Fold:
Amino acid sequence: MSKKVAIIGGGVSGITSALILGKLGLDVTLFERKKTLISGPPFCHLHAGGNLYREISDEQCITLLEQSIDFAKLYPQSIDKRPTVIALPSDDPQEPQMLFRRLELLRAMYKEMVRKQPDCAILGESDNYFELFSKEQIIELSKEPEARHPKNNREWLIPFAKNVDIKSIKFPVIVVQEYGINLFSVGASAGLALESMPNVRVYREYEVTNVQRDKNSFTLEASSYRGEFDYLINSCGFQTGVIDDMLGVKEKRMVEFKAAFTSLWSQRSPYWPEIIFHGERGTPRGMGQFTPYCGGFVQLHAMTQDITLCKECLVKTTQQSSYPKLGTHLLKTIESG
Ligand SMILES: Cc1cc2nc3c(=O)[nH]c(=O)nc-3n(C[C@H](O)[C@H](O)[C@H](O)COP(=O)(O)OP(=O)(O)OC[C@H]3O[C@@H](n4cnc5c(N)ncnc54)[C@H](O)[C@@H]3O)c2cc1C
Structure:
């Protein structure tokens, strides 16, 4: 008889686990407490190299590159092919050159991945993984007309060059092939694929409120549902620790609140790259991320206080609990915006 797997959480990790295990023929049941699958920010950044984070290790960057390529291979229809621009604020204590060594390492890793498995060439030619633009080039580009359908980094950079305050950033500006992810599309396509699998059941609006572990199985309760499973996958995002606490699993983790503001910029040209103002994290001039949506909408998201508008956004586990607890006001914001 096929093994029974329960997945708690219908975010991107839960539905991807359900898809993969469902394809392998396992008996899968997914529980999501909300009405819809994937309820996070609809347009996201594919961290193909993790260049967003200057403080993470080379190994973590390589893992992000590999995982992003795996993700893009699974959901090719949901990848928004547009590059990411990285600009350091002019008052940053560091220089853009500090990123070059890592970018070169990632380019070499990507080249090697493509050599071994040609279907990994999701991010275009490996030689073009990143490109540098000087101040003079950006000034030149600011005078050019915007391309209707940008075909190269230069054309993608034109709207940025026309709008950026040249005095507020350092040069060179880096353009890297970290694309976007359309999570509306991931949620919709994965939802349809899961519905078509007879061995997979998806329970929406079922919050798991109790889990117990016996010798060889897990007993799980969600609303009126009660069932036994051979395996349990805990995919509850920042609330993973709630289930860990029910099972007595001790984990150390941190949770950081990130805020996003979406706005209509009707004058905006239709094709913008993603833009990262790559400030030092944890400082008031920390990282700010500008993500283009379709239809003229844009999203500004970040963890710096000027964007989150709150203190104590970073919380840790304690000896008693594997669930780092954000303040009640932040939990309310996450629930109701
Ligand atoms: C503003 C913002 C911008 C972001 N931008 C990016 C980006 O550009 N690129 C990127 O890669 N990442 C980005 N992220 C992070 C990304 O959204 C998360 O890493 C991702 O959503 C994690 O997926 P997950 O499936 O692990 O968890 P989640 O997406 O949090 O999903 C967990 C699910 O579990 C459900 N759940 C919780 N408890 C229970 C329970 N007891 N019973 C049933 N269901 C339960 C929740 O309702 C939720 O649907 C951003 C996050 C934020 C907040």
User: Anything to note?
Assistant: The longest strand covers residues 27-32. The longest helix spans residues 58-74.
